[in-house]
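Regression report. Comparing outputs from two consecutive submissions.

Submission 1:
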Amino acid sequence: MFLSLLSIHPTPALTWVAIGGILDLYVFLGPDPQSVIRQYLQVIGYPMMPPYWSLGFHLCRWGYTTTLTTRHVAQRMHNATFPLDVQWNDLDYANKDRVFTFDPWRFGDLPEMVEDFHERGMKYILILDPGISSSSPPGTYSPFDEGLKRDVFIKNATGHILIGKVWPGQTAFPDFTNPETRRWWEDCIRDFHSKVPVDGLWIDMNEPASFVQGSAEGCPASDLENPPYTPKVVGGQLSSGTLCMSAQQKLSTHYDLHNMYGLTEAYATHSALMNIRGQRPFVLSRSSFPGIGRFSGVWTGDVGSDWEQLRYSIPAVLQFGLFGVPLVGADVCGFGGNTTEELCVRWMQLGAFYPFMRNHNDKPNAPQEPYVFGQKAQAAMRSALNLRYSLLPFLYTLFHHAHTSAATVARPLFMEFPTDDNCQAVDRQFLWGSSLLISPVLEQGAVELAAYLPSGTWYSLKGRYSLLPAPLDTINVHVREGHIIPQQEPALTTVASRRKPFFLTVALSAGGWAWGDLFWDDGDKLHTFETGHYCYVTFTAGQVGKRRVTFAFTVLTVSGLALPMSEVFSVQWAL
């Protein structure tokens, strides 16, 4: 199927041309953009509520080749007083690149390392590819041996297990549309988690990707492999870099199910972690499909370390928010190629306002952890991270509204100002909710930027089209009039920051009023909103006459959950 925008009709029209199948059309009438998104999510499902710690800073690299190296990275971050909540490992940890194993020499003390991180208030995540090594001697690799017994793998057109090739060599691919596969997958995760108590899982290569075309034996000649219409895919065939379209899964052929592979794996992984840990799952997926936001966050793939990719990351993040995946971000400082100090500073400043913030780097590149740069750059990065951590109560509240009412977290300007034609084309600025306007530097060497401020009064958090000063240590963030932003003093982990005092930034409107809210729970337990284990606080401020300002708040306390504060809030007024 393909679609095109045609102008031969009396008005512009979308025309679908299909080669077969069943086409269901859902029409969402709005009338405003946010209503359209809400109506869409009522069909595909509202996004999950992430654990609080997942909104902190994440650090990863393909190339942390030992536990010693991984520990050293986390310690250097701590020594340099950079907030760090989650340390990651790429496939370096795995024995012969086989998932559900860890190298006995380079990562022999992996379980102890994870426990050490936990004692420091940190979390740990590692990569989990779907490809299961099929070349290990029988009886030596339980995930494949058990998978064979339980018949969990995708078959080729002749009914034999389809063999592809990924990092460990020859691999079989789980069929997550099969309920038995999901049970086997949970058993594999449970067994590994009993040794290495990971806090979340990063499901990569789940398009699914393969290094051979279709399978090790090729694909049969059929209409599924060579349909009447083939999109302009890399390699020119639907099976390029993935599985044969004629492959057999429980529900149908891979031709019908290919685009859903990441979604079905995310569902299986989310369910497994929830059952095993008994807490809110964290899953990050590369592949996506409508509805994946119920189970997983997404990152934007292996972006390059350049200014163009920095700019492109904003519309990419905003689009996923519209698709019902609010937990999204790009690899901060870029994944492919060497970053520069200036680029990495600017990317850390922008990344501080991605809903999901992770610095990730490829093996051969120069290091890009914050502590490797000069003192001026480190100070700018530290300031950006501290600003993010101070705003986490506000960000968490935005995720609550996304989870319960389909609100967007990172928001395009046109969503909030649909009648302002100037906002339609703005893709270098964005909002957090309706309150904060973020205007990052996206050009090399820039020390000022042209930003569009929609109608109303906007207050700078640091003290029309406007030319804003933007030296290296500055990211421009403005608070919209009439809003109150809940914040906390930052710390090196969210465990520590959640114990810090709250304060409020109040931006009175021209009419002399402001409103804000805060959702607060333990940050990790399942279904806290649904079961009533939370606090919800509303704040109001108003001006009476020219000088007198009144402030009030209402706390809805449920099940005795207490906020870490007295009845007096520290209030700072945006002037």
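Submission 2:
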Amino acid sequence: MSIFDQTKEKKVLSPQTFAHVVLRTNDIKPLRDFYVSFLGGRIAHENEFAAFITYDQEHHRIALLEVPNTKPRANTSCGLEHIAYSFSTLTDLLLAYRQRRSIGIEPFWCVNHGPTTSIYYKDPDGNAIETQVDNFATAEEADVFMKSKYFEENAIGVDFDPEEMIRRIEQGEKEDDLKKRTVKLKHVDGNTEHESWVGLTGLKPNRGDGQVQKPRTP
């Protein structure tokens, strides 16, 4: 039997990796310059209507196409919500944040989702970009958390201040501790009810109220 006759499997063969994203635009040059700067990347190839950008061993990670009469992005339309890029450490995530700030690229949302600590940006066309670091050492641990009642109660996360995070790292706090999201639990001591923060997998909310967040849009 040929390997190509194996069509009765319940599960389709998964890809080896996610290769690239292609965005269309009505003004390619600002978008090209943004992504080269944002990703610390380089142009693999470009012409008057297309640009192929990479930042690693892949021939391109993002491609841009200038298409005439393309309309501006509408937040109310269906389609792609955001692109996400991962860093290996919290320090790297925050260093890239600082480097982007130095060239005028500011985030619009900084949030600890639980599975990840994430910083969101938008490109010149309004497309959202997430930069993140995993909060768990393994995918299995993240999977357990995502099936927990804590994630069910707040699957969006809690906001954090990246400058405060940098200050705490510089003072010697461990990354694993900074990535621990906390939840407010009620407990009774005698006849008195108290509220306390219990570390799980994210940060103590900088707002101090622990309220469930709604996703932010560019």
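Expected: both submissions complete independently.
Actual: both completed, but the second showed a warning that disappeared on reload.
Relevant detail on submission 2: Residues 194-213 have pLDDT under 50 and may be disordered.
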